[in-house]
Every structure is written in structure tokens, then in C-alpha cells.
Amino acid sequence: MNRTSRLGLFLAALLLIPVFFTPIWSITLTAPQYPDGIGMYIWVNDITGHERHDIQNINILNHYVGMQEIDPDQVPTLDIIPWVIAGLIALAAAAAATGSRWLAWIWVALFIISGVAGMYDFYMWGYEYGHNLDPRAAIKVPDMTYQPPVIGRETLLNITAHSWPYWGTLWVTLSLLTGTGGLFWDRIAKKKGR
Amino acid sequence: MIQKTTIWKVSTVLLGIGLVSVLMYGCPSQTEMLDTGDAAQRVYVAPGEYDEYYAFLSGGYSGQLSVWGLPSGRMFRNIPVFSQDPESGYGYSEETKPLLMTSYGFIPWDDSHHPELSLTNSMPDGRWMFINANNTPRVARIDLTSFETVETLELPNTGGNHASTFATENTEYIIGATRFSIPYDMDMDVPIDTYSENFDGSLSFIGVDDETGEMSMDFQILMPPYHYDLGRAGKGPSADWVFFTTYNTEEAHTLLEINASEFDKDYIVAVNWKMAEEYVREGRAETVPAEYYHNMKDENTSVAVSNVHDEVLLLDPRDAPDMIYFLPTPKSPHGVDIDPTGEYIVGGGKLATVIPVHSFSRMLDAIDNDAFEEIINGIPVLEYESTIVGEVENPGLGPLHTEFDGDGHAYTSVYISSEIVKWSLETFEVVDRIDSYYSIGHLMITGGDTPNPDKRYMLGLTKTSRDRFLPTGPKQLHPAQLYDISGDRMEMLLDFPTIGEPHYAQAIPADQIRDNVKQIYDLDANNHPHAVKRTADARVERDGDVVRVYMTNIRSHFTPDNIEGIRVGDEVHFHLTNIEQDWDMVHGFAIKGSNSAEVLIAPGETKTIVWHPQRTGIFPFYCTAFCSALHQEMQGYVRVSPADTDVPLTWRTGED
């Protein structure tokens, strides 16, 4: 690969570093009693409240309809994602260092597979969380489930859930664009050079 | 049959008469119409909007402090201070009972007149509110992050702490004074007609820690046996001084309405508190025995603790020259108020025909020139003419209290003629007057007691409402009136009912407090010795007859909610911890047959209520605060068995 493409891949590796320091997704719940909303951030390795006690308060609200408690320690994906990101960083760095097209293409493939798998896992987490309700819940609404949207806005009883990507997703996207951009630049340069 | 035209004629004539009579009699005066035409708009704060000012109104004989918004006149909160409050459990819970302890035992009531915001450079800083107890002399401090009473201090050697609470420039001191002179020696049993020999006056200087707000009885000054009525600290050039009014310089002890009204002049007392403090630090004060209580909420545990003190430092003006002077002032003066520049000292001679105005700079000159009429107990009496700079003529009958707009005007409440007069600080002439409804005591201008008043609103605190509201029996409410003083003329905007009997009030721009108000108590920082922070730790323990229930509250259940093995004759302590951390998510607790009150527990807080079960049976308890959709399910049972029962002590929640 040429210098520019390798630089692109190196930049792609760097862009994945801030993903550890900003949430990748944000879910906000608004209700009449919570005009400013309460909410949570989803990080690569954790789930935290927008404010210090938001997770506790969301759990208190949710227990009435029999939803499980949100406990970051009980979400196995959160243990895996940091390693996946770290692996992608290492792979991009290795591809940039060696200039190996093969490594670079494997990086792109793994990146896209991880991304799709991550979104699927997120959907399934929401599905499980919204459907697996305690049969002894105080409030039971026939046919009602409480799955938050993966992206967008949805009203569930008195609460509107707003689910949107956060800064971390921007870094992930930019990383993918920069890396693949580099690879395409390499192809173009190769053709022209010939 | 009457003709139609006749009816028209008669109607027209009647209508004409009607119009004339409306014009002549029925219509309020033109000025009043103009003044109040758009008042509703000017006090209207739309739903969801905030008021511009917090106003704090003393509760008078309710012993409370109420919190209001201006200009709307909406009440936000009523804070119990020197009163038990069955609503919150203040004064009933084990954590708060010590705040009502005195050397006379537990006193669940008092008469609170004068709230005072803590000051920095003579401006309110929004940290604390102080308020006095008149009857059993005390001073309290309220924390303005929680709006809760956190400290009370008893004043020894004091009969009625009326001239309190007023703060010096940077809240170095809160002042107090004896309204009724009494014998200084504790519990001294003497004939009342030995008044002049055995009775003494006292002024109190309560130190305030700048960091924590903690109060201490720093020193007292021994005074002649007069009555000390009101006080104020100076500001600007007079910031080192505090001023008190006296009445009963006649030293009467019976039928004071006649006997204490004889002399033409009583005094304003000027005290250089900086000098007094130095004398005390130099060791010129005598240590005298005095029993008094100091009660304070422990920062760490949030449990109030009482400390008993047994002596006080007493400074005698005969041993401490040049620090205190009498300014003759007509006639049984009530209020003493200092203008924003710190130069004018305005007396409210409630029986006087003028409002006397002393000059601080002339007072200093008079002191330099030894312009003394006489010296009483080491206190020089300055010549009246040497300090007076103006006498406001025609102020109405019974001028009491004065505040200022920072624009060269003073506003004096006038009790007997039920009005407020506005007068010029240049010409000492009345420029405007407006009715109050009825019999006004204090008035309060937004910032009107500071060096930098907001010429916006004035609150009149009146004593009787009579016909102003729908009647509610022989005892009517005490109202307040809101006036707009931003223009040349005073305009009345609003007339609203209050809680208790507000004497004085304080106001502060809302943003100076709003952003500092706590939303929860941090559960992690809850170091109450009987707190339980996790439902799993909830339990019941017995130690002899004392049973401690360590109970958690969270929407919508108590843990435990079934308790058995309690015996008749037990002393049951319910230690309730609200483990929620969500703003305004308050739980309550009450149990059938309790001879106490409920308690309300704020998020993160632990509160304790003691219950003495007297009969066997099943006793329901429940959450009294509508906390959630399943609030009605937030309840439980205690089984009480005979004293000699062998029912074991058990507790549970959610198990059959």
C-alpha cells in the first residue's frame, strides 16, 4: 500500500481510541414527571446514568412493569466489546505498519461484522429487556412490551424512550470511513500507477 | 296601563341618577384606579415560571418561617424552627428533638419575629437564614441548601430576645438583647419592686463561624435595666457599630403602658462591636455562670446534638470605655434602621409625632467633643441636638420601621394610622403615602436593609385583615401587601394571606439560592448511626425493652413490612432510611396508636420515630406521602404480643 493509504489506516486505528472515553449510545426517557428526562449512556464496557442516580431511578420505575434491573455487570457483551475494539485498533495498526493489503481487508471485514453483530446484540438486549417481564409484576398491560428502540423514539405507556448514537459511534464511523477510504485510495493509485 | 314611553322616561332618569351616584360615591378614587389597573399582570407568574425573589416571612407565634415567591405571593414552604411540626416530624423525630432543648427543658414552641439572611459585605449571600425566638430566648440557623433548621442557641440572661436576629457586615455576629430586663443572677428570687436594684439589661453577641455557620455565645454586655426593643447593624462607615432601641428607661415594672411612656425621650444604643470584641479578647470581660443550650445537627450523622454551657463572658461598660453611647430619641422608639449609605440612623418613635433621624458622622463628632448630657453606668448620653439631623414632620400616627430604596427615599410603616409614608433623605419631608390593610408592623423592601436596595417591591406586613378576605371567624388571618415602588409613587399590587403572624421578612434574588438547593441527601454520605443503605441490611434488633427496627423505604414498599415479637411495654425505634436518590421522592411513616407524629423522610435521609405500644394486637403502618402509583400498597403490620410472650422476634418482606 502507498503512504497515504497506510496513513489512512493508522488514522483509523487512532480514531478508535477515543471510543473508550465517550459513550457510544444514549437512551433518554421522558415522562410528565421527568420533563428533563432521565437516561443512560452505553459505553463499550459499561452502562451509566446521565446523572449519578439515573440507573437506580430507571430501575425503580421499570420494576412496576416487571422489567429486570439494568446491571452492567450482567451484560456479557460489555466484557467483549473492549477487546473487539482493541483488536481492531491492533489490526489497523498492523496493516498500516506492514502495508499488507490482506490484513487491511481482513480489518474491514472484521470491522463490519463486529458492527453488525454489535447492533444485533444491542437489539436483542433491548428485546430481552423489554419482553422478559416478571409475571408477578404490579402493572400488567395485555400485549404490552417495553423494548426501547435501537434508534429513534418510541412511547411506552407514559414514558417516551429516545435512543440515539452518541459521540463514540461517530469515532467508530469515522474510523471505518478513514480506513476503507485509505484502501480505496490505494486501489485507485495502483490503477493509475500502472 | 303604563305607556312604553313613560317607562323609557323613568328608566332614563333612574339611569342618570345611578350614574351620578356611581360617580359621586361608588367609584374608588381616581388615583387608586390608575395605580392598580394592571396590577394582576405585574404580579402574574405564569405556570411553570419562577418568581424573581425568594421572600422569607417570619411566622411570629407559629414559631416557623415561611418561604414565598415575589411578586406572585405564592407560598413554597413553611419551615418549622421553634415549633413541633407533625407534618414533617420535626421536633418529634429523635434526630430533631434536641433542636428544641433549652435550660428549661424541651420547649416545642416560640415566637419568631425577625429573620435575617447571612451577609457578606452587608449583602445577603444566600447561605443561611437566622431567626429569633422571643419567649424563651433563642436564635436559630436554617440552611438554605436544604431549607431545614440545623442549629439553635439559647441566650442566657435574657428575658425576651426581640432585638434579634440582625447580622453585622460579614455575619461576624448575630445580635440579641433582652426585651424585658431581669435579674442577671440565674434563678434569682427577689421582689419585683426591687427592679432598679436587682434587674439588669443585656445585649448578646453571637459569633458565627464563617465556614460552617456554627453559632457561639461570644459575649454579652451588661446594660441598665431598660427594655431593649430592636436592633440593626451599621454598614459602610458605620459597619463597626450596632444599634438598639430602648424603651422603659423609666424602669417601670408594672402598668408599663403608662409608666414606661412617661419620659419624653428614651435611647438608641450605639455599640462599637469591634471595640467590644477587642475588650473581650483583652480579657476585660468577666466570666459569669449561665446555663444555656446549644443544639446543632451533626454534619456527619445528621442527628442534632445538645451541648449545655455553664458560663458566659460579660462585659461591663464601666470597664470598657468608649464603646457604647446613648442617643436620646423620642419616644419609646421601636425600630432603628440604617440607610444604605450607613450615615442615617432612623428611629421609629411609636409614640412620637416625628420620625427622628440621627447622623452617624455627627454622632462621631459629638463623641469627639464630649457632648454628653450625663453618664449612666459608664455609658455617655449624647446631647440630642448634637446627633439629630432631621425630624420628619407629619409622618402619621405611630411610625415603627423604615427601609430604603437606594434612591434617596425612606419608607416608614405607620401603625396607628395604618399607612406607609415615603420621605426624602435630603429634605426629610414626606413625599408620598399609601394605605395599608390594616395596622402595619414591619415593612420590607427588596434589599431595603442593604447598602444596595432593589427599588422594586415593598411588602407590608399587617396585623389585622378584618374585612379584606372571606371571613373565617373571630380570629382572622394576618395579611401581607405587595407594593411596587419602582416609580415615583407607591402602588399596591397584591393583598395576600400569610402563615402565622409575620413580623419581619427578608427577600433575596431567586438565583442566589435556587442553584444551590439540594435535590437529595447523598445516601453514600449518610453516616447516621442507624441508617440502612441496602434493603438486604434491613432488620429488627432487641436490647432489653428497646427494639430497633432498621427499615428501608423505596417505591413502593417497606423492608421489613411484617414484624412480630414486639411486646407491650417495649420502646420501639423505627429507624427509617429512604434509599431513593430521586428528587422530591419522599416517603412517610405512621403507625396506628402512635402518641407522636408521622415522619417524612427525604431521599437519602434517615429519620427515627419512637413508638410505645400499649396494647396487644395488630398495628398497621403505612407510607403517608403519596409516593407512587402503588403508594396505597406501601404498608405493613406489626404484631404486638403480651409482655411475657414467647413469640420470637421476626421480620420479613415478600415472604409468606
CA radius of gyration of chain A: 20 Å
Residue-averaged pLDDT of chain A, rounded?
Answer: 92
Task: Note the total helix count of chain B.
Answer: 9
Biggest beta sheet summary of chain A: 5 strands, antiparallel
Q: For the CA atoms, what is the radius of gyration of chain B? A: 29 Å
The strands making up the biggest β-sheet of chain A line up spatially as 3-2-1-5-4
Number of strands of chain A: 5
Low-confidence stretches of chain A: none
N- and C-termini, Cα separation of chain A: 14 Å
Helical element count of chain A? 5
User: Approximately how much beta-strand content do the residues of chain B carry?
Assistant: 35-45%
Pfam families (chain B): nos_propeller
EC number (chain B): 1.7.2.4
Protein name (chain B): Sec-dependent nitrous-oxide reductase
Keywords (chain B): Copper, Membrane, Metal-binding, Oxidoreductase, Transmembrane, Transmembrane helix
What does this structure look like?
The complex is a heterodimer of chains A (194) and B (656). Chain A is an alpha+beta fold. Helix content of chain A is 53%, strand content 16%. Chain A contains five helices and five strands. In chain A, helix 4 packs antiparallel against helix 5. Chain B is mostly beta strands. In chain B, 11% of the residues lie in helices and 42% in strands. Chain B contains nine helices and 46 strands. The longest helix of chain B has 23 residues. Chains A and B meet through helix 2 of A and loops of B.
Compact overview of the structure:
Chain A: Keywords: Membrane, Transmembrane, Transmembrane helix. By secondary structure, chain A is α+β, with helices and mostly antiparallel strands. Chain A is 53% helix and 16% strand.
Give me some keywords for this one.
heterodimer; A: 194 residues; alpha+beta; 5-stranded antiparallel sheet; 5 helices; 53% helix; elongated; B: 656 residues; 11-stranded mixed sheet; 6-stranded mixed sheet; 46 strands; 42% strand
